[in-house]
Specification:
little secondary structure, 12% helix, extended
């Protein structure tokens, strides 16, 4: 028995698509699905104190943004 852990998206119809390794193609398998909703607010935030710990930490040569030149004129979006 092998296990695969992944994070994926369930569409608005409740469909989940999983691509399995090709080595098990054309064979019978038993599949068990255990799902756990992902709390997006916790996963997408900075850890407490991150900026206080890292602000001003760069000790290499000063970072300088070179001039970018003129931007080409583009057609307006409709």
């Amino acid at each position: 028995m092998e296990s695969i852990k992944l994070k994926t998206h369930v569409d608005h119809d409740g469909l989940l698509q999983i691509k399995l390794p090709e080595k098990i193609a054309d064979s019978e398998v038993e599949v068990v699905v255990i799902y756990q909703p992902v709390d997006k607010t916790k996963k997408r935030s900075w850890s407490p104190g991150f900026f206080e710990k890292t602000f001003g930490a760069w000790v290499g040569e000063p970072l300088v943004r070179e001039p970018q030149g003129e931007f080409p004129q583009r057609e307006p979006l409709a």
